[in-house]
Structures are given as C-alpha cells and as structure tokens.
Amino acid sequence: MTIKLRENLVAYAFLAPFLVIFLGFLFYPIFYSLYLSFHRVTDLYDVFGAMQFVGLDNFGKMFHDGQFWWSLLMTLYYAALVIPLGIITSLTLALLLNNRLPFRSLFRSAYFMPYVLDMFVVGLVWVLIYSPHFGVLNRLFTLFGIDTFLESGFLGNPYSAMPAVALANVLKGSGFGMVLYLAALSNISPSLYEAAAIDGAGGWQRFRAITFPLLKPITLFLIVIGVITALNAFAEIYAMTEGGPNVDVGGRALGATWVTGYYLFRTFYVSGKWGYAAALSYFLLILTLIISVINMRLFRTEEM
Amino acid sequence: MGTREIGRTVEAGRGALTSRPEGRDPGKTLLNRPADRRSPYLSWRHLRIALLYIGLILGAVVVLFPLFWMITTALKQPGQAYSLQLLPDEPTLDNFRRILADYGFARYFLNSIIVATSAAFLATLFAALAAYAFAKKQFLFKRQLFLFLLASLMIPGMMYMVPQFAIVSQLRLMDTYAAMVLPHLANVFGLFLMKQFMESIPGSLLDSSRIDGASELQVFRHIVVPLSLPVIATLFLLTFQFHWGNFLWQLIVTNKESLYTVPVGLAMFRDAHEELVTLKMAGAAISIIPIGILFFFTQRLFIEGMTKGAVKG
Lengths: 304, 313
Prior knowledge:
The structure holds two protein chains of two kinds. Chain A is mainly α. Chain A is built from 13 helices and four strands. In chain A, the strands form two sheets. Chain A has a two-stranded antiparallel ribbon with strand order 1-2. In chain A, a hairpin with a 2-residue loop joins strand 3 (246-249) and strand 4. In chain A, helix 3 packs antiparallel against helix 10, helix 4 packs across helix 7 (161-185) and helix 10 packs antiparallel against helix 13 (274-303). Chain A is globular and about 75 Å long. Chain B is an all-alpha fold. Chain B folds into two domains: 3-74, no CATH class; 99-312, Orthogonal Bundle (MetI-like fold). Chain B has helices at residues 3-17, 26-30, 34-37, 42-74, 94-101, 105-136, 142-151, 161-170, 177-181, 188-198, 203-211, 216-227, 229-244, 247-253, 262-272, 277-312. In chain B, helix 1 packs across helix 4 (42-74), helix 4 crosses helix 16 and helix 6 (105-136) runs antiparallel to helix 13. The two termini of chain B are 42 Å apart. Chains A and B meet through helix 1, helix 3, helix 4, helix 5 and helix 7 of A and helix 1, helix 4, helix 6, helix 7 and helix 8 of B.
C-alpha cells in the first residue's frame, strides 16, 4: 500500500512542472475565456475592477457584426487560395524530387527551409518585392508591358492583395507538405506501377489511378491543417496589408484581406474589447473543433 | 543555364550511380519508375532528366528568392534600395552596423536569445520529466490524463490570446521575460514525442541502476536523459524555433523597448521608419539568419521533428 502511494507520488512529482503550466495556461484559460466572453470591459485602466456582466450580449453582437462575417468570408477566400495552391506546389515538388537524382537531399532542404522561418519577417521581405513602382515584381511585369499594379503595388490593389499574400504563404510553407508527400510516395510499391505499365497505362493515368489515391490521406491532412491555419492567420496579414486595402461593399468600407485572425487581434489589442474578443475566439474554437471532428470521420472511413 | 550543361551534370552524376548492382540500365537508377526502363529512346530520357533539373532549379529559385532578396537588399547602399542589381556593386555592412548599434537591435537580439533559449530549455526539461513518468511509471489516472492532454492539441493557438493575456496581466507579469515564456512551457506535442522515444528504453537498465542505489532523479539524469539525447535535441530546436518567431504573443505582452525581441523591434521599426528599406532588410536578416544557420546544421532533426507530429495526427 505504502509502496503504491510512493510510486504515485514519484510519478506525479515528475509530472508536476508540466501539469502546473498546463493547467494554468492551457486548461484554465478555456473556462476563463468563457467567463470573459460574458463580460464587458468598461475601463481599460482597471480591466478587472470594472468588468461588467453582459450575459450573451457579446455572442448576440457577433451575429450583427458585418465586419466579423466579412472576415469569415475573407478567411474562406484565403483558405480557398492557399490550400489548393499549397497542395499543388507541395505535390509538384514532391513528384520532382521522387527521383533518385544527385543533389536530391540538397533540393529537399532548400524547399523545406523557408518553412522554419518567421512568417512576419518573411512577410516584410514580400512587401518590398510587391511594392509599387520600383518593386522587383513590378519591374518584371513592366518588362512584359503590364502596368496594372504600378501605382498601387500588388498589396495595395484590392484584387491582387489576397492572392499576393496567399502566394507568399504558399511559397514559404510548401516544403512541409512536400516532405509529407515524399514520405508517402516512398511507401508506394513499385510493383503497382509495373502492373499498370503492363496494362498499358500512361504517365497521367498512372498518377490518377495509383499515386493520387494513395496520397489522399496526406492531401486530406493538408486541407484540414490549411483551414485551421487560415482561421489563425495573423502574422502575414500584419506584415503585408494590415487588413487592407479597403473595398466598397454596399456602401461600407471593408478590408480586402481582413481575415478573422487579424480581426480578433484588432478587436482585442487595438480596440480593447476583451469580452467581445473572447466571444470571437470561442466561435473560432467551435469552428475548429467541428473541422477536426469531420477530419477524424474522414480518416476513420479511410482506414476501413 | 543551358540544357546541355545540366545534361552534363547528370551524365557525371550517373557515372557514380552506374556502379551500383542494378546499374546495368542507367534509366532505372536515375528515374526509379520502372516504366522508364522500357523507353527505347535514349535522347528522350536525357531530355526528361534535363527538364527535371530545370524544374527543380526553378522551384528552388522561386522558393528561396525572398531570402536572397532580403540579404542582397541588406547589403546595398541606402540610396540603392530598389536597384535591380542581383549583387550590389558596392556591398556594405553598414546597414547591419547601424541597425544593431543605432536602432537597438543588438539589445533585441540578446532578448530573442534569452527568451528562446530559456523557453526551449524549460519546455524541453518539463516535457522530458513528464514523458519519463508516462513512459516508465505507473500511476493513478495515467490513461485519462494522457488523453486529456492530447485533446488539448485540437485547440487553436489564437483561442488563447485573450485569456492568457488576462492571466499574465493579473499575475502582474506584463513586460517581463516570464510573460513571454511562461504560458508556452507545457508542450504537449513534445511530451508525446518524448514519451514514444522513452518507451524504447529497456526497463531493466533503470532497475539495475536503482539496485545500485541511484535515486529517482539520478536515474533520470544519468540514464534516461543521455539515452534520449536525439529527441531532446529535436524538441529543443523546435521550441527554440517556435519562440524565436512567437511574434504575436511577444508583441502584445511587451511595451517596454528594452524587452523587445527582434521581430517585435522590427515591427516597431517598420512603423517608425517605413523609408529605411535597407536597414529594415538588415533587421529582417538578423532575425532570420540564426534560424537559417541552425536549420542548415540540424536539418534532419528539424524535418523529422516537424513532420512526425503531422503524420501521427
């Protein structure tokens, strides 16, 4: 009996530092956030003293908040650009690298490397590349006689701003998907291709019938991760567009890159609406959990 | 670069490969898809390999261009910020000197090092201690606790911004290193990674050192830690990288300039001196190059660590 107690004590002693931080900063905040979402901060200089209970008001406000729904729409747009483009880029790089070639690992490292870098800082470099008049990309475009973006730059034009941000993100992150695809490709048995070749299947047919279906779990995973990443997008927007440029939507000025993650930051940090920001993040949490559940369903059917 | 040059490179590379046992047919070693072996046209194969290399090189140029452009611009004279020279004709390190000395980036760099190193050290230590308990000990609620921890991985990071900020400010930790580090010291993914690794340590090894009179902590320090060094190094690198770029959190919990990390300093510098492009790029390079170098020397650990969590779910 005492031996068992001792064993438990020793184990929990090893767990203690981790658990204390976990409970304090990862578990408790889930409930604390819910508490905050029922309140309104009335005085930013005395946040905790002047907190006012408002019930479900913050959640109610969300449904009438045009900027919020617009941000969800923009997040969807962002995801719709980043995810397919990212998957195509990752897959292309992986297929190119799936040959036994000299310098193969060098290329693999080169493609993966940008993934470990800080999005905010990389974003600042893209601002320079995309800048009006003298930016590299504009110089390149003028060579081909395109001067559409000369005045505004790529980030100042409401039509090109989001695709430009998405491209920067894709080029930084595609090495990650590539490594996953490469690992999956190396697990495909060559005999499958041999059999297909004997049956007279061409390159494209072999890709469609063998490679792509067998890579489906990775593709699904990248889609799910992509949606969650889009919901959390902040650093690239803060670095490149700060939510702008504004477009006129039915008489209201709304940001062409005004995504939910950035809106949450603005609501909380710039406007100081703690309660409303907490409510917004709860909405994000529920959205993410729904996506995760769908994801698990998909994977489960995949295995059966 | 001409296709012929690339073809020659491939030719040279093939010389090295044909010495392998299956090297009777060079096509198979280079393009390991069996169907290519059947192609009777040697020149077609050459063209294919050349195209492959062109694709690979183009891909690398596009992916690495921002990095290259950042460094080139940082080396240009301030007046030439937008010049199209790929390599500056009068390269200068003055931008780096000025941003480090005159704009406080030396201090920011030191702060980044302090924050990332201490956070990486503590997060790795806490994860290792907890992982050891999960891997090698029996205790009440072990399974439930583990599932509970795993479930937290589904919660998006953005969700934590408001409550963690509120907690840190109630603890009166605003504008301290602790505020930047403390909330991120429980790394569940790291715990998971380490637990898996430590499960492979034979229990007999631990038992025999206990019989020799080692205390629990000594067993951990002298047996478990040395045997887990690869995974410890991996987690240390990953957490270091995470905290080096933990921009949003560092931005909101610091108001004092003396506590800025490099990316936060860079954000403030951007807002104040939009026009000093070459200096800004020097600042960006200061932020990015350390991680780049770290990656260069430890890429296998980085790539494995980052993708392992992904595949396992």
